[in-house]
Amino acid sequence: MMRTLSADTPQKIGETISVSGWVQSRRDHGGLIFVDLRDHRGLVQLVFQPGNDDMFSLAEQLRDEYVIRVEGEVKERGKGLENPNLESGTIEIVVSALTILNRAETLPIQPFSEQQANEELRLKYRYLDLRRPKMQHTLKRRAEMFSMIRDYMESLAFTEVTTPILANSSPEGARDFLIPSRLQEGKFYALPQAPQQFKQLLMVGGVSRYYQMAACFRDEDPRADRLYGEFYQMDAELSFIEDGEEVRSTFDPMIKKLATEFAGKTLKFGDEIPRIPYTEAMERYGSDKPDLRFDMELIELTDDFASTEFGVFKNAECIKAICVKNGAGLTRKQIDHFTDIAKSEGAGGLAYITYEAGEAKSPIAKFLSEAELAAVRERTGAQDGDAVFFGADKRTTVNAVLGRLRNEFARHFELKDPNVIALAWVIDFPFYEWSETSGKLDFGHNPFSMPKGGIDAVKAAQTDEEKLAIVADQYDMVMNGYEICSGGVRNHNPEVLYEVFGVLGFDKAYVEAKFGAMINAFKYGAPPHAGLAYGVDRMFMELMSEDNIREVIAFPKNGSGVDVMMNSPSVVDPAQLKELGL
Q1: Does 438 map to a domain?
Q2: CA dist., res. 531 & res. 533, Å (int)
Q3: Which of 6, 313, 329, 470 could form a disulfide with 431 if both were Cys (CB 3.0 to 4.6 A apart)?
Q4: Are residues 177 and 254 in the same domain?
Q5: CA-CA distance, 437 to 450, in Å (whole number)?
């Protein structure tokens, strides 16, 4: 049998065992050949002694990454020859039989080298890159996290239900992946962006508590914290729930357990997870997914500059600032770098004041009155050695600029402690938002959440301003600046669904064409229900202190959405297209 190493291998001194694995390295030492053999448990040293000429000759052929099986006696290493860094470092196997199961050509990447190949090459040969101990550890840890989640869900009587992969196209905020139907020529399936409609239909079907590790598909651009094409979420829904807080409190213990027991990290706020309204998050942090491991809040100064003569501030709708501790030490080149970041978010420039020896130093200081300078220092709490950076523009632009700078300054000054997890629920999202692209109202997150106040709140809103003030019982969980969960109390009433779509100009026919199955189901006694979905890939990335989500996935696509290992996407045979009517 092709046995592998086990936890009790070092206790088998004097026994003859069989082990299989890869050749990690081979060393010739004056008539003896030493081989480090690797399997999924670790390394063990093999010793080939002269005497069996055929076997010794075969051992001389061994090269890195050959796959072999050996039999031999477990012996204790000589005094002073132990390797304390190995679990099997006190023993070695004196080989009596060797079989080469497979040979290996020179590897195009070196998984065990300190100097790793670039990401593109590692992804091309991902099956070799997976041999790295770090990748092996990551895959095991991911399985452990999934197991902990399943244990928690089943302890609360959730039922795991799988939902279809071939689904219908629906507007959920990203482009669909479409699949042409051969049997129904001219029609298309869509890969589900999320199991949203299916899980709500399960609630109508009488499933009390549903969950699954759901595969989701969205055609949106990849980035460091978002995979292209496919990702997994822990999807869950509960029936007879009308208050989002009941859902949030149900899942708080799970996420705290993952942060502390699984990841071994410290919770920033202890046993509490703050609830922050969306508007408050945007005003205080400039983001609906703020990193709360550090302070540096946005300080409102609009009223303090109500009578200013400084041109940049005079006509601004909103003026805010952030105080950067020790920011006075930034060089001119570094400030220029942060200015470029501000401009990328829509700012015209970046005004600032530094404080040294009790004095405010800045190119703009001479344009500000003594009262204004005093107000800035008092409101921001700036001390000697600090710097204050300003945003002055439309409120949305100011929040975006300073929110981005807050994050960038924290990175520069190393304020993001990797051993701390800062969790928060951002709640009460706007039901509608203004789309700069289309120049009209659109759904803020999705059309499936219940507007607070129900149909009466929707009907009462006449102007765009009133419609934008409608709040959804929607909530996101934030972890260290990443959105890791989104959920809401669902809209289970057909009349409310018709009404919220009608606000955007969609008639009943459109709603029924897009969501016909769900609308019809709701007519037959739909219970109130609510739920959420955790993005487990992104969550796992942060719990493992990784910066790139592709490092925690077995077979990811590259930054351009290409699987360079499998050469996908690829051109298909014209006959296949003809068969599909394309």
Answers
A1: yes
A2: 7
A3: 470
A4: yes
A5: 25
Which amino acid belongs to residue 359? E
Q: Where are the alpha helices (DSSP H) in 319-472?
A: 332-344, 370-380, 395-412, 454-460, 464-468
Residue 562 domain-assigned (yes or no)? no
Pairing of strands 229-239, 529-535: antiparallel
Q: Tell me if 58 is assigned to some domain.
A: yes
Residues 542 and 430 occupy one common structural domain? yes
Shared domain check, 463 and 404: no
Say if residue 500 is in the same domain as residue 530: yes
CATH number assigned to the domain comprising residue 94: 2.40.50.140
Query: Distances in Å between the alpha carbon of 533 and those of 144, 154, 178, 212, 251?
Result: 19, 16, 23, 10, 11
End-to-end, the C-alpha distance of the chain in Å comes to 52
Identify whether residues 66 and 155 lie together within a single domain: no
Q: Is residue 287 part of a domain?
A: no
Q: Give the type of residue at 423.
A: L
CATH number, domain containing residue 267 = 3.30.930.10
Number of domains in the chain: 3
CATH assignment at residue 389: 3.30.1360.30
84 and 166: one domain? no
Taking only the tens of pLDDT, the chain with its 582 residues reads: 567 778 788 888 999 999 999 999 999 987 899 999 999 888 999 999 988 889 999 999 999 999 999 999 999 998 888 888 888 889 999 999 999 999 999 999 999 988 888 999 999 999 999 999 999 999 999 999 999 999 999 999 999 999 999 988 766 567 899 999 999 999 999 999 999 889 999 999 999 999 999 999 999 888 888 888 899 999 999 999 999 999 999 999 999 999 999 999 999 999 999 999 999 999 999 999 999 999 999 999 999 999 999 999 998 999 999 999 999 999 999 999 999 999 999 999 999 999 999 899 999 999 999 999 999 999 999 999 999 999 999 999 999 999 999 999 999 999 999 999 999 999 999 999 988 788 888 888 778 889 998 889 989 988 988 999 999 999 999 999 999 999 999 989 888 889 999 998 899 998 888 888 888 999 899 999 999 999 999 999 999 999 999 999 999 999 889 999 999 999 999 999 998 888
Domain enclosing residue 329, as ranges: 294-415
**Which residues, in sequence order, are CB contacts of 298 under 8 Å at separation 6+?**
283, 284, 285, 286, 320, 321, 322, 391, 398, 399, 402, 403, 406
Longest CA span, the chain? 97
